[in-house]
Amino acid sequence: MVIRVVLVSLSFLMLAAHFSRANNTYLMILSLLIPFLLFIKKRSALLLVQALCYIGSIAWLYSMYEYIQQRIAMDVAWDKLAIIISVIALFTAFTGFLLNSAIMKERYK
Fold this sequence. Notes:
mainly alpha; 0% strand
């Protein structure tokens, strides 16, 4: 269970860094605080964090689309960017999937 929480925290830490780079302080702070919801031992808190993982993955994909459009306009290679952000988006979605395990369901009743 500890590994799952660490991975979820890592995915939100990456989201916070992304929002920090975009100068969005409110979403950065929110991303840093979301993993602390896992200290609330209620099923609704677990489901909220899981949903926010999936929303974070969508945010990565949206950002990837925007960055690719910028790079195409500048006539710069964008394939490595797409691979890196796709892996990060998949990792974020995977951490949401990890919260759906039997261990987590047992812990958060």
